[in-house]
Design a protein that fits this description.
The complex is a heterodimer of chains A (319) and B (665). Chain A is α/β, with parallel strands linked by helices. In chain A, 28% of the residues lie in helices and 14% in strands. The longest helix of chain A has 13 residues, at 70-82. Chain B is an alpha/beta fold and 665 residues long. In chain B, the strands form twelve sheets. In chain B, strands 10-7-6-18-29 form a five-stranded parallel beta sheet, covered by helices on one side. Chain B has a five-stranded parallel beta sheet with strand order 20-27-21-22-23. The radius of gyration of chain B is 31 Å and the shape is globular. Classes of the chains: A alpha/beta (319), B alpha/beta (665). The interface between A and B is medium-sized, with 28 and 23 residues.
Chain lengths: 319, 665
Amino acid sequence: MKPKVAFYWCASCGGCEESSVDLGEALLDVAEAIDIVLWPVALDFKKHHIEAMADGEIVAAFINGAVRSSEQEEWVHLLRKKSQVVIAFGSCAQLGGIPGLANFFNRAGVLEAAYRESPSTVNPNGVFPQTVHKDNGFTLTLPVLHDTVRTLDQVIDVDYYIPGCPPTPQLLADAVQALLSGKLPPKGAVLAPDHALCKDCPRRDTKPEKPMISEFKRPHEVVIDQTQCLLNQGLLCLGPATRSGCGALCIEGNMPCTGCFGPTSRVRDYGAKALSAIASMADSNDDAEIAAILSKIPDPAGTFYRYSLPASALQRKKL
Amino acid sequence: MRESNGAVRVGVYVCHCGSNIGAIVDCKAVAEYAAGLLHVAVARDYKYMCSDPGQELIQKDIEEHKLNRIVVASCSPHLHENTFRVATAKAGLNPYYLTMVNIREHDSWVHTDRAAATEKAKDLVRGAVRRVVLQRPLEKGRVPIDPKVLVVGGGIAGIHAALTLANAGKKVYLVEREPTIGGHMAMFDKTFPTLDCAACILTPKMSTVKNHPNITLWTYSEVESVSGYVGNYDVKVRRRTRYINEDLCSGCQECIAACVFKEPKFPDEFNQRLGKRKPIYLPFPQAVPQTPVIDPETCIEFKTGKCKKTCLEACADRHAIDFKLTDTVEEIRVGTIIVCTGFQAYDARRSPQFGYGIYPNVYTSLEIERLVNAAGPTAGEVVLRDGKTVPRSIGIIHCVGSRDENANRWCSRVCCMYSLKLAHLLKEHTDAEIFNFYIDMRTPGKSFEEFYQRLLNEGVHFIRGKVAEVTDWAADPSEEGKLVLRVEDTLLGVVRRIPVDMVVLSVGLEPHADAQDVRRMFNMTCSNEGFFLERHPKLAPVNTFTDGVFLAGCCQGPKDIPDTVAQAGAAAAEAMALIDAGYVEQEPNVAYVIEEDCSGCKTCIPMCPYSAITFREQDKKAEVNAVLCKGCGTCVAACPSGSIQQRLFEDDELFEELEGVLIHA
């Protein structure tokens, strides 16, 4: 009997699903080797199908997305119960990801922005999502949105992590291969290299010992030299702080690393580490000048904690 | 060494420090609380843990209770960490199985609420107990000390330090920026309060330096770079050329006499530009070395190439003069360095209310030193700038550039006394009526107050008040042609106008303009005012924060000659202590790179204040030189991939301690 594997998504954009599909023809080999029992984005399985399974019947559940609603919480608990191995797949499940930035607000603030404040919203009647709706004697319920976005391991026990926004198809293929062969690392491991991106960066040799940044620039503001270290060009590249394993895709595309692979295993708070590394590069010894240089970094909290706010030491903004 | 095989057994010792801790922290309660913590086998409180019985208590418990971790809650580890490490080691336990909790400076001394302070002590002890469990045994490293010493600066501090070391048989390189050693002291006429002639007591020492077999003297030279670490400093010294070969020159000075300039024409720096010198000159008659210098800025040969070069003829067969000579760079290895770079006098132009540079007859104190000196520009005759008028009245303004919010805030320490000395000398030379204007009279040295009394008896006037301005505007005919000092006499409570012929500004002492460059070169720190900072103001006054680099003299702060000499002797003794030990022990709490994890991002490299990190090109990894590392932890915090750790401050130890402190039991 082929091993049963589940794919599930929580608060995510669907990019992780895309990445799975990006396996291309290799997906067919994967599908050949395993029995997919759940994949909402592609296949029509229902919750009761899973509930009907024996505990531990699923060999592995790949769960992407952060957990931010009662429905997601219910699902991940169910999958934990039915699965031998749970893999947090992608930045959102591992670190909170982009949805995790909602932790700078609470539910009310998020809904206010989405349903009233955003410039593209047309909502003259002020309709807001409700958890219970009665109409014609029927009652409709919707999941409750939490105030705080959580990583998967803040809700259930997680066995492995695959980083990335999204993870590369190769990492998924490698993980499935490891599962099938039983050659899994110790529990809790991140299934990617444990060094920073600089080591694999094609531009590493162009990074000076002291890149001194007198002005932080955003990619659209400059013509980027395709051969030179991006930090040395004043672009906020988070490669020094970010786990490798992506193949330096963004750098190859001439864009700075935004840190989606998160920290190495030795770092507890990605944003703090990245921030202290970048802040040390301001080209001045004068406090006021340094402050002026650093003030050019747009949205520092959102930049350094772009993918990892829920997994950070502070987890969320205190409101 | 006993290692922690099997169970971890922690001993906790809470010190009362007499009443220093005991008055605010309930030490007994803290010990009782600690006894209940996981892994704690023994917990005690004791009046003075640092006393012999206190230390013996730990040793006895290590034996009896098979302890393998020790926590001492007492004062700052700066004070007694070594004490307790030694005590721990004596009982056969690795000394790095000890951790200290500072419940004095961090607790009892800063709190008044006994209950809360006691709770805080418990929190801190809980953190330490959790931390100490994870601590690893460490060993100290040893670094050999090269016995040669570099002394930077050839003023009285450098001279004394160099001679002390050389007399003890140590090889010394003495490097001086100016063409002669002697520094400021060589410019002084007499020294206070004994009034002995500065040159008479200094120049013999200068000659001894020159002739000492253990001293290599390089004047007109500057340290260009310093690398390495305690015991092993590699130093480059640039020896500026004098265009006269020091080894060939006999010091006969025939060349100076023979110069095409028959009369001295250019301002003489040594005489504060009051006198003149030739393009080829000796700064002063007893200069050491007795080798003249050619100033290419004024020498006709350098300016036009068309000089008759009579100096060359005078030098004849010696061939010491060579216009083609260039700077040379000497590379030396020394084990220790003594920095004695001195001070610069406050530029009186920065306080224009006193009229220096505006009225010719306003002088600085250093100018007066030269003016009253028999070897000075006037051969010791005190005359005004017209060269003939002897002043009949003189005002001496104290604290020029010192104790002044608009200039330097500090007291320069020596000005009161040298002002008294100058008052005495000027009176002696001119019999003029002399007024001293002072804020406070500071005479706290041996025989200083007596000297002040002597001046009072000599009829010198003392007016307590800050001079508001020096002006040549005459309020009545009696002030015509005079300099008028406007001052509030705070003892009389009136504003006075004192007309005088000559004004002397007692300028303060300040750090050299390039002190920051020197600081960086020798890896020192500066205090707020810019003087080099000693490691501890009381207990390590000549040490710096860089091992093997010591301080002496006014580069550390204003001081008089006796204090400078004492400090120079102390610095020499500190250097000798290292040299004679032969090696220095290195604390093992250094940072190290986890090589397989390092991504080669280089973030750490510029962060290191001690230049201890280098980038290895062959495998693209950062590397920490354990001898240079001071264990400050900057690189550990900066490493963006967490690939640098520090022994004794490993992440797991720190987080465990943090959690222990923050999680209330």
